[in-house]
Amino acid sequence: MANSPLVSYTKLSPNHSGKRTHTIDRITPHAVVGQLSVERICDCFKDRSRQASCNYAIGADGRIGLCVDEQNRSWCSSSRDNDQRAVTIECASDLTEPYTMKPEVYAAMVDLCVDICRRNGKKRLLWIADRDKALIYEVKSDEMLLTVHRWFARKSCPGNWLFGKLGDLAQEVNSRLGE
């Protein structure tokens, strides 16, 4: 399994569980809580003591970084099960709720989600806003499901700004996947 060719910066974190035990069928975007560069986001995960990581990072200027190889499980969403299945993406955002992301970050996230879906043989990205319905949904082999950190921990991540746009994100990705 290859990593995204959209990556312009790599700083691998030691914080991961090695090879995944489940095929990739989820994408979990996060708000990093700060308008940070991709380098600064990746630096957040360099120390083992942090016990956190992500697969990809998107800096405030829209550049994409790699922190954990896509074939490996990151430690990102407070859920072992979700992280085994999900490509996790930490995105630069404002410091406070609703954790707004810059247009460059959102555009890069759309590009990255399209790329992740294509490389993993997925033809459709799904957003089911109801946590219980989403987590019992049987993802088909050609589908990818969006999940959020707030479903697994007492956090607002990815913030209300992105949470309110996840339907649009799925629609934009699906439109491009159909091209």
UniProtKB/TrEMBL annotation:
BP GO annotations: peptidoglycan catabolic process
Parts of the chain that traverse the membrane: none
Example GO molecular function: N-acetylmuramoyl-L-alanine amidase activity
Extent of Polar residues compositional bias: 1-16
Region (Disordered) location: 1-21
Top-level division of the source organism's lineage: Bacteria
Pfam families membership: Amidase_2
InterPro entries, per the entry: Amidase/PGRP_sf, Amidase_domain
SUPFAM superfamilies the UniProt entry points to: N-acetylmuramoyl-L-alanine amidase-like
Domain (N-acetylmuramoyl-L-alanine amidase): residue spans on this chain: 23-160
Stated name of the protein: N-acetylmuramoyl-L-alanine amidase
Organism annotation: Ruminobacter amylophilus
Taxonomic classification: Bacteria, Pseudomonadati, Pseudomonadota, Gammaproteobacteria, Aeromonadales
